[in-house]
Sequence to fold (530 residues):
Amino acid sequence: MIDQQTPVRRGAARLPVRPRTGRFLVLAVVFVCAACGLVYELELVALASYLIGDSVTQASVVLSVMVFAMGIGSLLAKRLRCRAAVGFGLIEAALALTGGTSALVLHASFAWLGESRHALVCFSLAIGILIGAEIPLLMTLIQRVDRQDAGGAVADLFAADYVGALVGGLAFPFLLLPVMGQLTGALFTGGVNAVAGGALVLWVFRRDLRASERRLLIVVNAVVIALLATATVLVDDFERAARRAVYGAEVRVAERTGVQEVVLTGTGRGSLDLYLDGRLRVSSRDEYRFHEALVHPAMKGTHRRVLILGGGDGLAAREVLRYPDVTSVVVVELDPAVTRLARTDPALSRLNGHAYEDPRLSTATADAFTWLRAARGRFDVVISDLPDPGITAGSKLYAAEFYGLVAGVLEPGGRLVVHAGSPAGRPETFWTVDASVRASGLRTRPYRVRGRLTGSAAGQDRRAGAVPRDWGFVLAARHAPGPLGLDPRAPELATLGERDLRVARHGAERAGERGVPPSTLVHPRYREER
Fold:
């Protein structure tokens, strides 16, 4: 029993509203607080996945720490039940400030300190304790509002709590993120939280407050709301400063799409960098080495029809279109913002040789896995220019089932080439890609190209530290792909020659970690980059 019958009658007599109205207002605040609490939780998971990587691990850390902290908060709240109204008001103000500013502090920690794991755990713990303290105090308050047994009060409170959590969980991805973004969305949620908690205590339970407690709550809530409002006004300036701290002073394009954050820095062949979700995707200093090694070994033989999976930047397409006998190129890119930049940004379109102006090239905006399941045509060459394996969101694009779909669109003599990560830096990942391709029934020829120029502080991957100094690829076909080589009609290349390809094959073999099992949809085996 949470409270005795006598306090129930006394609480009801002191309310400025009828008991039924008071009960409705308490349950409405439970609904709002539950929605805000889940938004904070999802915000931490989303930020952890974006800033730190390894979304499965980060989600597990956030959720487990928060649930543990909620238990601590529930125990600590027992000491506040004698002054439930003022205790609840202060807790909601603290929760609004902590949850509302969590995104800002995590971004600042990542941008200026280069590390946000400790801040993530601290916020998960603090928010969990404050959320855990809410329900015991609300239980006390609702029993003082209306004559109701403890079982009925529990049922009502948890019903409002669960429905609020549903609304908050749906509002976060479908309303707050697309309309306000991570930072403003968290600040707005904190403001709603502060107003709801403060209004309930200062109006419905104002007769339970001493004059000093009333003044304290008014001042605390005013300060919290003022801080959140000020941060909301300055959030754009903060984002620009944080972006400069992460990417340098030459940020030209920074766009949060429905898929990822796209950042373009620099203006020319010696300085242009493309980052997707903080990962260095293209550096103009050495991208030609990568794309020559990716494309040209696969073009040895018939290559009239070519499919490029990913590669929305147009750089792989640039190399393919250098062959005059290519009749059609299809680029399947998930994020239309990347293909739009490749078309319209002067520096990027110059780097890709204005590939999107070539009438032989067409694009499809789709997930590569979904597109392949519905594909009807066949291709002589399939080029997989996707984000590095080991990124949880893209693990299915490096699974054996995915390569089975690719095999289904290959002509009998067709070839597949896959960017498979760094054999030197992540050998287990590289050989897992090779095993996954072989599991689809294709024969493989792995190879490795060294000499990557990017790797200094100026060309650092903001998520994974220094960029590896080599690239690994897997060439595959229904039958043995044959020795690595170039097509006799291949255009003149900047760095890649027959001797380089012979070295590339032996380099991959020396990196060896053969014998690893393939990755599948049911059992993904890639370790996410950090």
